[in-house]
């Protein structure tokens, strides 16, 4: 998890992530797919190095 120690903090984290996705996702609507793929690849590269 995210280092949460209580159930309430997990609920708060879930709500924050949900609201963030609801309001941030529409901003990517007009972003070209190539740019989105580059963002995903650059974020995923450290995971592949291990």
From TrEMBL:
The chain crosses the membrane at residues 6-28. Keywords: Membrane, Transmembrane, Transmembrane helix. Residues 2-43 form the SLC26A/SulP transporter domain. It is found in: Membrane. It is a multi-pass membrane protein. It comes from the Eukaryota. Its main location: membrane. GO terms for cellular component: membrane. The keyword Transmembrane helix applies. Pfam families: Sulfate_transp. This is SLC26A/SulP transporter domain-containing protein. It comes from Populus trichocarpa. The lineage of its organism: Eukaryota, Viridiplantae, Streptophyta, Embryophyta, Tracheophyta.
């Amino acid at each position: 998890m995210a280092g949460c120690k209580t159930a309430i903090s997990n609920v708060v984290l879930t709500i924050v992530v949900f609201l963030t996705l609801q309001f941030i996702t529409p901003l990517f609507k007009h972003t070209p797919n190539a740019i989105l793929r580059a963002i995903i690849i650059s974020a995923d590269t450290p995971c592949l190095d291990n």
